[in-house]
């Protein structure tokens, strides 16, 4: 009985060992199949990361700087304050410039009445000239009328003289009648000559008055030109001084929110070019990150998925910002390549995003099966010695 029972036990052990080996073989084959499937069929996601990333408004922030050196009279700056383009942020002392502006304004204002007065003189001269010309023309026409009135009896007297002269030669008239005819003729001729002389005199007097008036008007116009030149100079000086006054009013260049501000008090002195504040415009947020050129060029592409983990907000608790690559700079600057990314809706994010929040970003650059990574690593290992020589 004992040998039989022992033989049965040995057989059971052998069968158990054979079954266990079979299972081990099956499990090993299945594991190898799973590894092979993973190696050749399941892609691995590769990322490029950068710790130099931050949230920014799509429109660039404007930096406010002092245009010149001056003493602060008043400053209206507060972090988070909303300002509109053109709002006065800082007033610098402009008292000397304002006094000069008042002087130039007074000078320009005082010149204008003088110009108006001289222009009125010209108008009066021209009006008087027209009236004198009409009066002179009337006098000349009256003298011409006297000439015409005297010419008719003079012609009759001349005819009478000729007739009496013919009769006298024939001895048919007395010398007294002939002399009376000569006297009448001379009287009419003198009247005609006097009227014609009056016409010439009136014409000469009118021409003289017109020349004198032209000289006076020209002198007045010269004075007006001088005054207008002085007024133009005063206005130019006023514009220059007004510009100097305006430069001492530091205004907001754009509308937005003050994201950074220097503490300024009345009496503080600002140096030219000193940074006063930065204004963040309203707009859509984006992510700006900087990568090494070898990591960016040819690897980062438009539309690639990305994730920003905000510094100071653990992503396991507050979530991460989902993003997508929008633009990759074509050239590097200071050894870095700029990459801009669009912010996507992130349902799990529990942080209100603001301009300037820093973080670390990872961008998906490739999905590839593991065997290609092994081949790539092997190729790099094989070529590494040759590259070192």
Structural write-up:
By secondary structure, the chain is of the alpha+beta class. The protein has three domains: 42-58 and 283-372, Beta Barrel (Elongation Factor Tu (Ef-tu), domain 3), CATH 2.40.30.170; 63-93 and 249-278, Beta Barrel (OB fold (Dihydrolipoamide Acetyltransferase, E2P)), CATH 2.40.50.100; 95-247, Helix Hairpins (Orthogonal Bundle), CATH 1.10.287. 55% of the residues lie in helices and 22% in strands. It is built from six helices and 14 strands. It has helices at residues 2-41, 95-169, 175-247, 293-296, 315-318, 370-388, and strands at 44-57, 62-65, 70-75, 82-83, 88-92, 249-251, 256-261, 269-270, 275-280, 285-291, 305-310, 321-328, 337-343, 358-368. The strands form three sheets. The protein has a six-stranded antiparallel β-barrel. Strand 12 and strand 13 (337-343) form a beta hairpin. Helix 2 runs antiparallel to helix 3.
């Amino acid at each position: 009985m004992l040998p039989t029972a022992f033989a049965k036990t040995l057989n059971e052990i052998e069968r158990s060992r054979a079954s266990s080996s079979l299972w081990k073989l099956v499990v090993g084959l299945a594991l190898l199949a799973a590894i092979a499937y993973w190696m050749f069929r399941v892609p691995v996601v590769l990322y490029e990361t950068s710790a130099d990333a931050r949230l920014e408004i799509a429109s660039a922030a404007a930096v406010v700087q002092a245009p010149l050196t001056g003493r602060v009279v008043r400053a209206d700056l507060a972090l988070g304050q909303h300002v509109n383009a053109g709002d006065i942020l800082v007033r610098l002392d402009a008292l000397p410039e304002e006094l000069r502006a008042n002087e130039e304004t007074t000078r320009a204002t005082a010149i204008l009445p003088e110009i108006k007065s001289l222009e009125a003189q010209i108008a009066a001269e021209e009006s008087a000239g027209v009236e004198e010309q009409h009066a002179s023309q009337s006098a000349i026409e009256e003298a011409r009328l006297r000439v015409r009135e005297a010419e008719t009896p003079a012609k009759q007297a001349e005819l009478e003289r000729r007739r009496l002269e013919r009769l006298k030669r024939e001895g048919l008239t007395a010398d007294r009648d002939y002399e009376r005819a000569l006297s009448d003729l001379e009287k009419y001729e003198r009247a005609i000559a006097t009227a014609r002389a009056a016409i010439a005199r009136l014409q000469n007097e009118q021409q003289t008055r017109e020349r004198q008036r032209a000289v006076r008007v020209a002198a007045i116009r010269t004075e007006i030109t001088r005054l207008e030149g002085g007024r133009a100079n005063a206005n130019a000086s006023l514009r220059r001084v007004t510009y100097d006054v305006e430069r001492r009013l530091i205004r907001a260049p754009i509308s937005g929110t003050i994201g950074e501000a220097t503490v300024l008090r009345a009496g503080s002195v600002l140096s030219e070019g000193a940074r006063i504040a930065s204004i963040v415009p309203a707009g859509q947020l984006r992510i700006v990150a900087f990568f090494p050129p070898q990591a960016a060029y040819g690897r980062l592409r438009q539309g690639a998925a990305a994730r920003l983990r905000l510094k100071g907000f653990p992503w396991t608790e507050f979530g991460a910002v989902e993003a997508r690559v929008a633009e990759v700079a074509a050239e590097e600057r200071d050894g870095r390549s700029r990459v801009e990314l669009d912010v996507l809706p992130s349902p799990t994010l529990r942080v209100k995003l603001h301009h300037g929040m820093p973080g670390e970003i990872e961008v998906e650059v490739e999905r590839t099966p593991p065997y290609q990574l092994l081949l790539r690593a092997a190729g790099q290992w094989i070529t590494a010695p040759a590259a070192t020589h």
